[in-house]
């Protein structure tokens, strides 16, 4: 989920402040600090400290406790977001402790997501960057005001060093701990505006290469607490046998054998399956495997066949007489293409792919009367409150969510099906917590996959080979129709997240982007990079085809088309130099791709070889240059981009979910193929910040260019053979070679 945002109000007022971001507000009240879901010892210490606002607590010992509002799923936000506050409050990073925010959208919601608590869409840093820096700036001014009163000097004569207020003229100073020991909030509270933020070149922490992620040590020594690690007194365990085809319900349940399993306490019919509650996970699983269930036979998903539908979606994209919903239009692309001297037309298909997070779906819930507590590795605490309330028959304000560390997310943990499982079963044993764990097979077979999609691209060229018109049609199921129906309806049936990546920085005089919705009953969801991950494939491969038709170098052609985009030109030129684009390779070739995903600029070159007999592609190197705007944590940006490149190569070469008669055919990593360590390319990432720009989204930008860079390399290696269907399975490669 992406949307641009504009910071319109940047002043912090006395008892609260309101930051309006893209029409949404984030209100931060000054006062008490809620109990966090993680870090009990730190939370206990913070509860008794000085609280200048709901984000920061300063202890008499100088320890500064900062709330992290976003979910940590390996992308580093538990470090980077508190770092923003620490930067502008001049905290000593060595004395900073971080705790996870509770579920409270009014205080901790993301302005980039309309003020709700949701981590995803590469929106976290973009949404919180300015607000959290302002929190830090005002916290610093509060410490200055208190110190001025204590030292009996004007606040304007004071400066700060890490965790200390200094009066240079008299040589006196006060540590933040000393201020906290007896401090009271000044009245009126000093205001903070954008002018109070440190210039980037004066920042102590932003941009530094040597600040490690605070979550890593605990993950290394095993003390990190993920959702699957939650243990509560008197806890039960649950699992759910789900219908093999979505939309079906249990019509008859023979549970005699299941009830005989020692440790089974309850068998619960559900609308979507049968739940088992037991004294251990093993007991619940063994009982579930003994259930005999007769399922209904009425779901329209039973007609879902992914291979057949891939062809149908391709045909829908090609059928220019079938109208689509315009996602973007400039000029009359249809007329421009009709009058072109030459037209390049191509179709691109992307199969369903699964999130395959290392930690399978899980959640723990406790229902007591009309109150609910949930412990979960969730990307969306606000949505969790809503769905848990619905499942328990209460209201969201009666639901408390403890967000644990996430063992991977990629959009999957923005869903609530595993939350609903836990709450539904906990409701049956009121007063006792129930931990629901999905097996890997459950996870693979019942995911919310990236949509099956087909793209039809037509590009009109004039006699000189220049682009005069571009038409891009995306045929796919909608994510927003299910997850954000009001937005979907309000946009006239346009799914902007599915069409992301079709509007690009290249100078094209006329273009038309259309969404042709397909609806075959299967739920689809957000997957890392969402629309960019599929649509960049079509855009970047067609750009290469146009360059070939024109007889020009793909690097030079992109630089020409990006003539008014200096940041884009920079990354394209830099990555070509890194990869030594002009140097001949023996038996290998290079391919280039670029993206402007999530406000960043990213260019990649892939070096590949091909076994023509087997059809297997080997990726040897991927070079990448990324401009993230402000680089808050450069080393973490490198790591995130490298991880996204692995994901991008894996889904381009191997990953696919096949559905036959509504049933998923894959079940675990033996059948759902992902890239293995022995297949890993060498990855070379260079971060080239532009500090005058606000930070871009970074967790996903590395994924979209990888697949088209591989495809373009294969085309250069084979004299123009174009791969047009993700993943590039050996049989598909051999078919393309023989076409």
Summary, kept brief:
The protein is built from 21 helices and 29 strands. A hairpin with a 5-residue loop joins strand 23 (589-595) and strand 24. The longest helix has 28 residues, at 124-151.
Q: Residue ranges: pLDDT <50 for 5 or more in a row? A: 1-45
Please tell me the total number of domains: 3
Mean pLDDT: 93
Strand content: 15-25%
Please state the structural category. alpha+beta
Number of helices: 21
Relative helix content: 25-40%
**What is the CATH third-level topology name of the largest domain?**
Aldehyde Oxidoreductase, domain 4
CATH superfamily of the largest domain: Aldehyde oxidase/xanthine dehydrogenase, molybdopterin binding domain
Report the principal-axis shape: globular
Largest sheet: 7 strands, mixed
Measured distance between first and last alpha carbons: 38 Å
Assigned CATH class of the largest domain: Alpha Beta
Report the strand count.
29
Overall CATH architecture of the largest domain? 2-Layer Sandwich
């Amino acid at each position: 989920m992406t949307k641009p945002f504009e910071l319109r109000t940047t002043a912090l007022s006395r008892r609260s402040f309101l930051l309006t971001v893209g029409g949404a507000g984030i209100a931060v009240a000054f006062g008490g600090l809620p109990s966090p879901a993680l870090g009990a010892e730190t939370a206990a210490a913070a509860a008794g400290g000085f609280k200048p606002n709901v984000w920061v607590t300063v202890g008499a010992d100088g320890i500064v406790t900062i709330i992290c509002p976003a979910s940590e799923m390996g992308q580093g936000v538990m470090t980077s977001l508190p770092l923003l506050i620490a930067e502008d409050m001049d905290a000593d990073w060595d004395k900073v402790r971080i705790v996870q925010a509770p579920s409270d959208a009014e205080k901790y919601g993301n302005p980039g997501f309309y003020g709700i608590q949701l981590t995803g869409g590469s929106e976290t840093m973009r949404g919180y960057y300015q607000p959290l820096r302002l929190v830090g700036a005002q916290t610093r001014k509060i410490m200055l005001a208190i110190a001025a009163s204590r030292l009996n000097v004007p606040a304007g004569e004071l400066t700060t060093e890490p965790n200390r207020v200094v009066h240079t003229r008299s040589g006196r100073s006060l540590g933040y701990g000393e201020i906290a020991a007896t401090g009271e909030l000044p009245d009126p509270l000093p205001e903070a505006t954008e002018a109070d933020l440190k210039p980037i070149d004066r920042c102590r922490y932003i941009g530094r290469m040597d600040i490690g992620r605070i979550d890593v040590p605990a993950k290394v020594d095993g003390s990190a607490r993920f959702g699957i690690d939650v243990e509560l007194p008197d806890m039960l365990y649950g699992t759910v046998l789900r219908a093999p085809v979505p939309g079906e319900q249990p019509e008859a349940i023979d549970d005699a054998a299941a009830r005989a399993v020692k440790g089974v306490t309850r068998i619960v019919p559900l609308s979507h399956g049968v739940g088992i509650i037991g004294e251990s996970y093993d007991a619940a699983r063994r009982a579930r495997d003994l259930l005999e269930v007769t399922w209904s036979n009425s779901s329209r998903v039973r007609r879902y066949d992914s291979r057949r539908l891939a062809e149908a979606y391709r045909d829908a994209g090609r059928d220019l007489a079938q109208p689509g919903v315009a996602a973007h239009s400039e000029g009359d692309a249809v007329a421009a293409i009709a009058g072109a001297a030459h037209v390049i037309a191509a179709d691109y298909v992307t199969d369903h792919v699964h999130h395959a997070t290392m930690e399978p779906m899980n959640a723990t819930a406790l229902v007591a009367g009309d109150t609910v507590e949930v412990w979960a590795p969730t990307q969306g605490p606000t949505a969790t409150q809503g769905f848990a309330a619905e499942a328990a028959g209460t209201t969201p304000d009666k639901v408390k969510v403890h967000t644990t560390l996430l063992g991977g997310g990629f959009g999957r943990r923005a869903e609530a099906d595993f939350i609903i499982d836990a709450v539904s079963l906990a409701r049956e044993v009121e007063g006792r917590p129930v931990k629901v764990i999905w097996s890997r097979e459950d996870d693979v077979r019942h995911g919310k996959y990236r949509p099956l999609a087909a793209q039809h691209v037509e590009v009109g060229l004039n006699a000189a080979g220049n682009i005069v018109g571009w038409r891009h049609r995306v045929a796919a199921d909608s994510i927003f129709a299910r997850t954000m129906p009001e937005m979907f309806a309000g946009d006239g049936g346009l799914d902007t997240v599915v069409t992301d990546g079709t509007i690009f920085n290249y100078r094209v005089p006329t273009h038309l982007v259309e969404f042709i919705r397909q609806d075959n009953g299967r739920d689809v969801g957000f997957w890392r990079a969402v629309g960019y991950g599929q649509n960049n494939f079509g855009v970047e491969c067609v750009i290469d085809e146009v360059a070939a038709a024109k007889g020009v170098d793909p690097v030079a052609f992109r630089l020409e088309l990006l003539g008014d985009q200096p940041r884009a030109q920079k990354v394209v030129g830099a990555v070509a130099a890194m990869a030594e684009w002009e140097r001949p390779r023996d038996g290998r070739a290079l391919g280039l791709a670029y993206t402007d995903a999530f406000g960043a600029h990213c260019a990649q070159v892939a070096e590949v070889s091909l076994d023509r007999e087997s059809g297997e592609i080997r990726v040897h190197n991927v070079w990448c240059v990324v401009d993230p705007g402000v680089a808050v944590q450069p080393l973490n940006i490198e790591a995130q981009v490298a991880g996204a490149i692995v994901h991008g190569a894996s889904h381009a070469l191997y990953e696919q979910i096949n559905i036959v008669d509504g049933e998923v055919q894959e079940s675990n990593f033996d059948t759902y193929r992902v890239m293995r360590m022995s297949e890993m390319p060498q990855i070379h990432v260079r971060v080239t910040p532009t500090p005058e720009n606000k930070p871009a989204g970074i967790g996903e930008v590395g994924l979209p260019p990888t697949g088209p860079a591989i495809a373009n390399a294969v085309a250069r290696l084979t004299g123009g053979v174009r791969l047009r269907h993700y993943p590039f399975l050996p049989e598909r490669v051999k078919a393309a070679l023989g076409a």
